Give the backbone structure.
Amino acid sequence: MKKIFIYGFVIILVVIAAVLIFKGKNGNEQAFKLVAVERGTITEKALAVGTIEPDKEIKVKSTIPGIISEVYFKVGDLVEKDRPLFKISPNPTPVEYVEARRGMEIAEVTRRQLLKEKERKVSLYRDRLISRSEMDGIEARYDETDLKHRIARERYQLMEKGRIEISGRNINSIIKSPISGVVLSRNAYEGDPVVPLTNFQPGTELCAMADLEEILFKGTVDEIDVGKLEPGMSADIQVGALPNTKVEGKLERISPKAKKDGNATLFDIEIAVMNSSEKTLRAGYSATAYVKIRERKDVLIIPERLVIFEKDKRYVEVKEGDVISKVEIKTGLSDSLNIEVTEGLKEGQEVVERPPREIT
């Protein structure tokens, strides 16, 4: 008898719980919100992800070998064109130094010998004992030897002191700034050896510079959107480090060739930053660009989540009085949040927004 009473009590509790759940579900099904149809602007945009980069970045290198003895700047400095950046001290090997010294001495001996021979020839020519062509020959040989001697001497002086003066022009081992701009990075320090830039080797990169008044957004856009883009389109750039700053740009270049990133097919693009002088933008900032493809102003819009897609048609639920009815509509542009309504609704109509269904 006691067991029957317990079983009966459990059954009653189950029935009561089922009724409450059923009523709760019906209550949720009846609950909804109303969203008014409004006028506004809707823009179709293409999303690009990338970084802020200088338009032109210069890698400063040396054409002479040696050791860095002085550095005249710090990273981040704004330097003018032709301002000294590095001083390179010669650092020849013992063999190179001896060869340069002995080469200069040999050239000096050869020049002195030809000078004596030239003086003898001049005396003979005055006495008309040799021809003019023979005199011209010895003068040419002497001039060539004298030039080789000067080359050997200048090479030795440059190797020993790091500077010489030729025809009133000072030639030294000071590396100067090739442009007016900001020093982005420094790769060489006092005491570091310098490998010169030649036709056979790239040379030591000393520092990198750029004019930060001419900067670009460099990023990638998905293949779905790239066919809609054209150079000249305007863009809004959102810099991650400056969330409250609006940066405007203009699309300049679209890569003709795609690249793979995992399973995605992407195209490189470049956007010129139009108002860079008004912002503190630094090279390497992460940024997101929204390229404006098409725009509609003063059109009817509703949240896209309210649209019901059935086959090739689109519907919404509207409330008129106490009656909720399903209405077919035609749509236009979408920005993934809102969608343009071209037919089927009027401004001020109330569209039903059902609550999301619970996952069971």
User: Anything to note?
Assistant: The domain at 57-90+173-208 is CATH 2.40.50.100 (OB fold (Dihydrolipoamide Acetyltransferase, E2P)). The first helix runs from residue 2 to 30. Helices lie at 2-30, 94-126, 132-161, 223-226. The mean pLDDT is 83.
